[in-house]
Specification:
By secondary structure, the chain is of the alpha/beta class. It has helices at residues 13-22, 30-36, 38-45, 51-57, 73-79, 92-108, 110-118, 120-124, 126-137, 153-170, 185-192, 210-217, 219-248, 250-268, and strands at residues 3-5, 27-28, 63-64, 84-88, 138-140, 148-150, 176-179. It has one domain (3-229): Rossmann fold (3-Layer(aba) Sandwich), CATH 3.40.50.300. The N and C termini lie far apart (77 Å). InterPro entries: P-loop_NTPase, Sulfotransfer_4.
Length: 272
């Protein structure tokens, strides 16, 4: 493990994931942890994972970004004491505005709903999702809606400040970089001891468009989306077939007759 990103969501975590990948690192972001390691993460969540368990989880992984990494950066750093830590920062007001925009965009996205709710793999990972999302953002409406309901603004801001303070206080100073993605390649590469790539520094998830971007480029998201579309199609066909069979049955004829008789009775009744 080369580097652990302890920065809070909406501080450039998707940009950092892209930057690490461009540097040749095997990076695990939210979706990789969610899809491949959700069972192992549940042990970290309940405190039963050992350092050996964590090292085994991330064998061959060079860098970690986004949630739940930033919540458990201390446990990860204990397992990988050689790893460097980066705290991505951002102006609090712009951070909060971006956070709310992400909420609204995600809750309104049919694509996100298919991936998070309809895919069988997502249903199997529901406990993982509830834990991670609940730690950051508050409550959610539950399956099958799964709309996020964020904490009160003051609580959300307090959590952001407390997280940053905790990292600054506890991270080993000789291994810590406080960094803003607007600084570009130079301070990042100098800290990591790597050469600056001959490519522009990436800027991802502008205007909360990460879901569409990942649907185009991320294999995990593409698989979940495909599963969701197939599941939705199968359910639609089954419901349609069940409706067709019912319409052809005697029960349907009896129901139609009963409704017709009762409607006529109500029409003739002097109740209005």
């Amino acid at each position: 493990m080369k580097v652990i990103l302890a920065g809070y969501p909406k501080t450039g975590t998707k940009t950092m994931a892209a930057a690490f990948t461009m540097l040749g690192f095997n990076n695990y972001d939210y979706m990789e942890n969610y899809f491949y390691l959700h069972k192992e993460w549940m042990k970290i969540f309940d405190g039963s994972a050992t350092n050996e368990d964590i090292r085994r989880m991330f064998d061959g992984v060079d860098s970690l970004t986004d949630a739940p990494t930033c919540i458990y950066w201390e446990e990860l750093q204990e397992a990988f004491p050689e790893a460097k830590i980066i705290l991505t920062t951002r102006d609090e007001d712009s951070w909060y505005k971006s956070l709310i925009n992400q909420f609204e965009t995600g809750n309104a996205s049919f694509l996100a709903w298919i991936i998070c709710v309809i895919s069988p793999q997502s249903i199997l990972r529901l406990s993982y999702s509830c834990h991670v999302l609940g730690r950051f953002f508050g409550d959610h409406a539950g399956w099958p809606s799964f709309k996020l309901r964020p904490f009160h603004e003051k609580v959300q801001r307090a959590l952001f400040r407390q997280h940053n303070y905790n990292v600054l206080k506890k991270a080993p100073m000789d291994k810590l970089l406080v960094y803003n993605v607007s600084e570009g390649w130079e301070p990042l590469c100098e800290f990591l001891g790597v050469e600056i790539p001959d490519k522009p520094f990436p800027h991802k998830n502008k205007d909360a468009g990460v879901m569409k971007e990942m649907a185009q480029n991320n294999k995990v998201v593409q698989r979940l989306l495909l599963e969701g579309v197939i599941s939705l199609s199968v359910v639609t066909v089954l419901v349609g077939y069940a409706g067709y069979k019912f319409c052809k049955s005697d029960a349907c004829s009896k129901l139609v007759s009963w409704v017709s008789e009762n409607v006529n009775s109500l029409r003739n009744a002097d109740i209005f």
